[in-house]
Records
---
Amino acid sequence: MTLEITRFLEAPGRRLSIDLSLPGGRLDQDDLRDVEHIRVIGEAFAQHGVLFVEATIEARIVQPCSRCLEPTTTALSIAEEIEVPIAPASDLLDLTPEVLRLVLSSHDPNVICRPDCRGLCAVCGANLNENADHACAKQHDDRTRLKDLLT
């Protein structure tokens, strides 16, 4: 999500429209979230070595349901104002770190796939949404024998 800033530096203070996209992918190899698409639409202007961006950030995030672990897609739309310092000898400015930080801090980390999600069986881990009649036999706990010895 790189922005060519020469046109902003040629006319300081003048607002110019921006429309940037970032293709989807895994955010981090250790992260369970995927971003399908991020789009930044708005205006930006440069003044005193800083690029000021006023934009709407739209994103679609795929992450596991916090109850049943099925992939769940959520849409996000946030209006933000970003200030990014401009390096003195640079013609390009990468907005990706700032935009990703805003997207990740604005989305719900505990998303559920649907309001009536039943989650996983606590004993065997079966998805209770797929098998509504699922019932595991209660497992015998060997520690109860110790209780019998003490009484």
Note: The mean pLDDT is 86.
---
Amino acid sequence: MSTLTECIEGRRSIRNFKEEKVKDDGILAILESATFAPSAINKQPWYFIVIKDEALKKQMANVVGAKLKEVLSMIEKDDETGMLINYSKFFTFFEEAPVVIAVLCRPIT
């Protein structure tokens, strides 16, 4: 159990990435582990897309940034909006990651 506790307590968000490639076997191990996540009635409605292409990551970040601006323009301006604007840089920092794993989900019917 101490390994599990260490893993949970040692978890952190990384926002500055090294300039080294991620090995495919490491990505595969992450994806295999992700398939063990719990889901309602074990439907496992997710699928994963591994993105390494720099141009595609940039395009994704541009789309997210544009949608964020659109959302911010529709909400009432207050202190929480200011806080959201300050945190908005965290919405697109994935562009600098060597690999992005997009998690998509099928609708449960």
Note: The beta strands are 46-51, 100-105.
